Amino acid sequence: MKAFYGDLRVGVLGGGQLGRMLIQEAINYNVSIRVLDPDPDAPCKNLCDKFVKGSLTDYETVYNFGKQADLLTIEIEKVNVDALQKLEEEGVLIYPQPRVIRLIQDKGLQKEFFKQHGFPTAPFQLVSSREALKNVALNYPFVQKLRKDGYDGRGVFKLRSSEDIPQAFDASCIIEEWIDFEKEIAVIVARNENGEIKAFPCVEMEFNPDANLVEFLISPSTLPLNIQTNAEHLAIEIATALKITGLLAVEMFLTKDGRILVNELAPRPHNSGHQTIEGNYVSQFEQHLRAIFNLPLGDIRPVTNAVMINLLGEKGFEGPAVYEGLEEILRLDGIYVHLYGKKFTKPYRKMGHVTIIDDVREKAIEKARLVQETVKVKA
């Protein structure tokens, strides 16, 4: 392989905030990044060496972009995998591999993968239409998820009774048993081409109930050690079974009786790992680069307590973004603001995040709650 720090042409499919933070880390390695994204004002546009405006799902666009790269990676799964498969056959390195992206794009295939390998997950059923919901084996309430294209809380619908069927999705989907869980947790694991594998410590998440988006994340977890260890081992087993090269985010439910159930996978840097930039010896973005360049993986240990707050667009506001309260929170110690370069806000759009670190966990949480109350993204 060409030297990662100089002559290797690296392409990223997707120019959002994940790509932006990946580029910020790639600069430290002197890596040249080119980006494909349909948004002419994508967050990556002014940071990458070359920006190409184009569809991520169009075969020719993705293929032609990929032909100009030695190595391709993604920051979003919704890409044309057929084009990636062809590029891989022609010698372009693609991490994560197209076969992994294809499986994870389809929540039905994900669930079947869990079942085949004995990974614990909620009971589920594949359903092809809204009409089919009238004759399913699961008891109410249950959750309907679109098999494809659902992300950031979209494509999910809870059915409490048969009266909800008219509002359900009329498409191929999975339905799964409603889990009355104790907590949502996540583990991000990295694997390089040599098979070296490391899992970041388990983190605890809180979700915005309206947007179904991660809003508050605490690292490291204070759950019993056996639960953390089991979650980390499970994530490693899944990454090993996939033989993925790159990062894999594994979202899980911790049930009230102490079981761990796998919810979903993401084959890329993930919202549940943003705190690693300040909170761990190696960030998820540097780890992803190390993995796809087949370098030794970095030290995943936490440096200190870290809490991450997502900055979401306020409900009722749409237009040029205005960030209220930044000056006030920046008077505090241990506050790190990351704005994503999105010019326009809309309700629940991810506009940035703030990481709060402190040697005392309770102080980090207290300051994070203040940040949550103080910073508002309006128009």
Q: State the separation between the terminal residues, measured CA to CA.
A: 47 Å
Low-confidence stretches: none
How would you name the CATH homologous superfamily of the largest domain? ATP-grasp fold, B domain
CATH topology of the largest domain: D-amino Acid Aminotransferase, Chain A, domain 1
Rg computed from alpha carbons, rounded to a whole number of angstroms: 20 Å
Quickly count the domains: 3
Fraction in helix: 25-40%
**What is the overall shape?**
globular
Q: Count of DSSP E strands? A: 22
Beta-strand residue fraction:
25-35%
The main pleated sheet reads as: 9 strands, antiparallel
Return the CATH architecture of the largest domain: 2-Layer Sandwich
* The level-1 CATH class of the largest domain: Alpha Beta
Number of helices: 10
The mean pLDDT is 95
- How would you classify the quaternary structure? single chain
Class of secondary structure makeup: alpha+beta
Features:
single chain, alpha+beta, Rossmann fold, Dna Ligase, domain 1, D-amino Acid Aminotransferase, Chain A, domain 1, 3 domains, nine-stranded antiparallel sheet, five-stranded parallel sheet, globular
